[in-house]
């Protein structure tokens, strides 16, 4: 395993030692009480988390971009597993939006008996792999990977932050039949953003006018987000801002894996996918 020195293992899942705190995560799991009006953006990293945070924020502000431009995303939708993010929540009476990458078995238990809603965004894991390697190699807190092959192996073995993609999705997928869980894909956001935004509104019981929906779409487009995702310059040092923009808003396309995988890697990946996803409804994700 390359570059594992930044990991902290919690119940077998690799987390990030510089931002995660085992005691906090355990406390959240046992004690955090979700309210019925809470909404959580849930993803495996690099699946379109920030895109969905943006869409959700814009739906809540009825398409008005003022909120997304003036308040950083980690304050609008704090990460449950990050202690410093959650400390802010205590001071805000009206915080109902959250984000998380936690696998189901580490998530706060109260969710499973509450009416709080999860928006789960899944993405083609081959594209996640490419996006995640880029993130690792361009974000200063991580040492870079020496080769694509090394990261390819670590990804397939789950030696990456939040562990195996296969375990993450298999842990959460059974929830898709619950009323308070909406399964979405990065690919459907691409294919028809309007239909997906309307689906999210319906799930959340939010009624937006045609004009407001159009504004959500416009302000959640790749180019607009790239320009203002970190608008709040006082909060983010210039250097971090530069690298964050590079890693969070890279290409924003489907199928980029084809530019990176060799034929052998594609075959190895497909074989593992078939083995690990056996028994899962193969029609759920029409990924290539
Ligand atoms: P790429 O690296 O493939 O470009 P996350 O937010 O979970 O870290 O995911 C990041 C990925 O989502 C990046 O993928 C990024 O470009 C993509 N993304 C973010 N906003 C997007 C948008 N508005 N439209 C399309 N893709 C977007």
From TrEMBL:
<dbReference type="GO" id="GO:0008146">
    <property type="term" value="F:sulfotransferase activity"/>
</dbReference>
<protein>
    <recommendedName>
        <fullName>Sulfotransferase</fullName>
        <ecNumber>2.8.2.-</ecNumber>
    </recommendedName>
</protein>
<dbReference type="GO" id="GO:0005737">
    <property type="term" value="C:cytoplasm"/>
</dbReference>
<keyword id="KW-0808">Transferase</keyword>
<dbReference type="Pfam" id="PF00685">
    <property type="entry name" value="Sulfotransfer_1"/>
</dbReference>
<keyword id="KW-0963">Cytoplasm</keyword>
<comment type="similarity">
    <text>Belongs to the sulfotransferase 1 family.</text>
</comment>
<dbReference type="InterPro" id="IPR027417">
    <property type="entry name" value="P-loop_NTPase"/>
</dbReference>
<feature type="domain" description="Sulfotransferase">
    <location>
        <begin position="36"/>
        <end position="280"/>
    </location>
</feature>
<dbReference type="InterPro" id="IPR000863">
    <property type="entry name" value="Sulfotransferase_dom"/>
</dbReference>
């Amino acid at each position: 395993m390359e570059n594992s020195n930044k990991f902290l293992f919690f119940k077998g899942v690799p987390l990030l030692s510089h931002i995660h705190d085992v005691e906090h995560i355990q406390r959240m799991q046992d004690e955090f009480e979700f309210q019925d009006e809470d909404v959580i953006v849930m993803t495996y990293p690099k699946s379109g988390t920030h895109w969905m945070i943006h869409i959700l924020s814009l739906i809540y502000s009825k398409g008005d971009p003022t909120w997304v431009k003036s308040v950083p995303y980690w304050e609008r939708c704090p990460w449950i597993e990050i202690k410093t993010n959650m400390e802010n929540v205590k001071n805000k009476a009206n915080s109902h939006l959250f984000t998380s990458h936690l696998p189901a078995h580490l998530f706060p238990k109260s969710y499973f008996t509450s009416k709080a809603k999860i928006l789960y965004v899944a993405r083609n894991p081959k594209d996640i792999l490419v996006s995640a390697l880029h993130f690792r190699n361009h974000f200063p807190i991580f040492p870079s990977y020496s080769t694509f092959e090394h990261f390819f192996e670590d990804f397939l073995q789950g030696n990456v932050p939040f562990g195996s993609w296969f375990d993450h999705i298999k842990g959460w997928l059974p929830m898709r039949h619950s009323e308070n869980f909406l399964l979405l894909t990065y690919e459907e956001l691409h294919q028809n953003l309007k239909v997906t935004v309307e689906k999210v509104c319906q799930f959340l019981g939010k009624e937006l006018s045609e004009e407001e929906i159009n504004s959500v779409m416009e302000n959640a487009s790749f180019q607009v987000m790239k320009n203002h995702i970190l608008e709040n310059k006082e909060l983010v040092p210039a250097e971090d801002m530069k690298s964050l923009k590079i890693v969070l808003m890279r290409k924003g396309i489907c199928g980029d894996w084809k530019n990176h995988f060799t034929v052998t890697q594609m075959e190895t990946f497909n074989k593992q996918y078939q083995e690990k996803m056996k028994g899962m409804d193969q029609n759920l994700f029409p990924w290539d």
